[in-house]
Amino acid sequence: MFWLVLLASANLGAALGAPVREPVSELTPNQARAYAEVLNMRPAAARALLGTGSSSDAGTLLVEDCLGITELLISQDAARYEAAVDAQDARLAALEDQTGPLAEYAAAEIRLHQAAAQVVFGHEVQGAWSLRRSYGAMQRVTERYPNYLPARKTLGMLQFFIGSLPEGYRWFLKLLGLPGSVDTGLRNLRRAATQPNDFQPEARLVLALLEETYYKKPEAALQLVQTLHRQQPENQLLTFLLISQFKKQHRTDEALAAYRARPSGPAYLPLPYLHHLAADLLLYQGQYPAARRANQLFLQDYAGQHYRKDAWFKLYLAAWLGGDAGAAARYRARIGKEGRTILEEDTYAQRFFEDKQPLNATLTRARLQIDGGYYRPALATLGQFRTTATTPLRDQLEDTYRRARALHLLGELDSARVLYARTIARAGTAPYYYAPQSALQLGYLAQAGGQANAAKTYFRKALSYPQHEYKNSTDTKAKLALAELE
Q1: Alpha-carbon dihedral sign for residues 28, 135, 207, 73
Q2: Domains (range + CATH), the chain
Q3: Per residue in 423-468, pLDDT tens?
Q4: Which residues, at least 6 apart from 333, have a Cβ–Cβ distance to it below 8 Å?
Q5: Can you list the pairs that 121-124 forms with residues at least 24 positions away whose Cβ atoms lie under 8 Å?
Q6: What is the torsion angle, in degrees rounded to the nearest 10, for the CA atoms of residue 435, residue 438, residue 444 and residue 449?
Q7: What highest taxon heads this organism's lineage (predicted)?
């Protein structure tokens, strides 16, 4: 998800004065344990630990707010929004006259939590202003207390995300005065991730997940999550991250095993999105009735608007591929009636709903098999696909692209390169994601082979497509890869 204002200037630096000597700035042992329970997603345990300290203490206010924003964003319950923002305002008021690195960091962090809540629940203008104030405050913390690492964790994360946003968001960032820097952000994150501080585990996870998503370092991220999960098997957040990492790396069997062994019970905060993840995994295996049950459970327990269109789309796929045409028609109709199109998954589902051209069942099964890591079965499925004079261009492109992906993931790189290039050549300016994704993958292959100039050409090609379903994520990855090469 999700901002920066550059406040450091010669005059401002003079106004702030030289860095001050840092007082004690750590959480108390009870606050640290309470924060660990927030990460465990055990709210009652966290509140019990916080109840032993002063309600106006900066560490208590910070951990309380971490718990509050976690509950709000996981539930996505709009009925809780006003009370949550009011509680944040009260905490900020309690911190107004407090000084020191922890108190000033807590105020900036709570303001950032408020920005996230405002944006998620549709108050974008308020959220933008809160974001601007949060960044300015966080930057002042790092200027006054240069060695206070928690502030560098948050500042680095914001710098990275702003610096990596696609060009389409530049007007918004300029309007707010929020430039970004990927390199500076990563440096700050690494400082917080590699040196002891109260929030080091969080910084390590954020850094690893960024590198996995944008810099093709999946093994390191998975190894870290696995190690932490072995140390804390009762931690629901780590279980979620483990399932998510296995899914992203096409290791469906292991992801489902982790899902079935997840911690559960009344002590834990409900995490409906886990069922949505499981529904995808079951779709990959062709377990259509089980996939339907998992997404129905997700929709039943989830109060938010994000992922709803995607869930109805996946319900459609499970019913359609499972031969239940009546249910498929009902699910398809719900895509157009529910949810928002902020996330790419929901945008894709909405485009499917609006598109008069039906999906091809053979290609759809192959796509799901590839996503699940079943590459040989996917190639066998694609072997059943035949083109004719009336085959739509979209299906022709998908067939070629899916073959390329399966071969690429099997390590047959020369064959994959040929098919990626063929996808690009056939696509022209067609508004589908197969050609830009092919260009992105060719860029990665050239980069891995030490062909820097070819890689740059392919990454620029990926950026050149004006419209497709996954433009934001594709452009971000291509932009960061180019920055590495230049």
Answers
A1: positive
A2: 10-155 (no CATH), 272-354 (1.25.40), 384-485 (1.25.40)
A3: 999 999 899 999 999 999 999 999 999 999 999 999 999 999 988 8
A4: none
A5: 121/78, 121/81
A6: -120
A7: Bacteria
